[in-house]
Amino acid sequence: MTDTKPITPKHQPPKTIGGKFESLIREQHRVFFADFADFANVVNWWLADEHVGSRWRLQERPDTELSLHGVFDYGPTFGRSYAVFYNQVRIGELELHPFLYSTERPKLIRASRP
């Protein structure tokens, strides 16, 4: 029998964006990285609300060099990554990254999934 309770997320947020590719990080990456620091907590809070009652959860991963977009012509793509769970089962990944993102003009261009 499968456990029907959602996971309690154990986030592993990265400390900085870019890791070994720090020299490739631009201001839009830093702004996006800071603005989305609480994204998984906010989404999970909403999903767990008694009126929503969803079994879906996000768990932040430490990776900032993203891989799901599949286009590497211009080097690595940076952002935040999350494991997606339904109850206790990990069913996929979600990656978010900026493209022309700024506080004045927030715009999420791509959310990827397998």
For the termini, the CA-CA separation is: 26 Å
User: Low-confidence spans: pLDDT under 50, at least 5 residues?
Assistant: 109-114
**What's the overall average pLDDT, rounded?**
85
Instruction: Characterize the main sheet.
Output: 4 strands, antiparallel
Order of helices and strands: HHEEEEEE
Descriptive overview:
This protein has 114 residues and is of the alpha+beta class. It has one domain (19-112). 17% of the residues lie in helices and 28% in strands. It has 2 helices and 6 strands; from the N terminus they run H-H-E-E-E-E-E-E. The strands form 2 sheets. A 4-stranded antiparallel beta sheet has the order 1-4-5-6. A two-stranded antiparallel ribbon has the order 2-3. A hairpin with a 2-residue loop joins strand 4 (80-86) and strand 5 (89-98). The two termini are 26 Å apart. The relative contact order is 0.23.
Topology:
Layout (H helix, E strand, L loop, with lengths): L26 H9 L3 H10 L7 E6 L3 E2 L10 E2 L1 E7 L2 E10 L9 E5 L2
Antiparallel strand pairs: 1-4, 2-3, 4-5, 5-6
Short structural summary:
This protein is α+β, with helices and mostly antiparallel strands and 114 residues long.
Core attributes:
single chain, 114 residues, alpha+beta, 4-stranded antiparallel β-sheet, two-stranded antiparallel ribbon, disordered C terminus
